[in-house]
Design goal:
With about 110 residues, this protein is mainly α. The protein has a domain of about 80 residues. It has two helices and no strands. The longest helix has about 70 residues. It is rod-shaped. The protein starts with 6 loop residues before the first helix and ends with a helix.
Amino acid sequence: MPVSQTPEDIFASLRAEIRTLQDRTLKLETYADGLNDKHDTLRSEVRTEIASLRNQIASLETKMETANKQINTKLDRLFGARSVVTAAITLLTSILGSGVVHLVVSIGK
């Protein structure tokens, strides 16, 4: 994945590609249904092409799902790391604050 492409760009590109394949499949299906019995060979070729297009669509959908899962996993790790850092900072601040209060009380006695 090139650095300049965002996940949204990649998904938009894949969606456009899927839409193009779906349109092409629909046109071929419509064309195949319009053929009469004299064109069995052509009908067979068109059906083969339709099956190929459906496989390409399924493959692209799988790629989109995989990419989406990878992005979600990375986001989960990022947010988890942020939580740990925030908790550590909060704990350190709390300990330092308690120490300062203890020091001030001790000096005041």
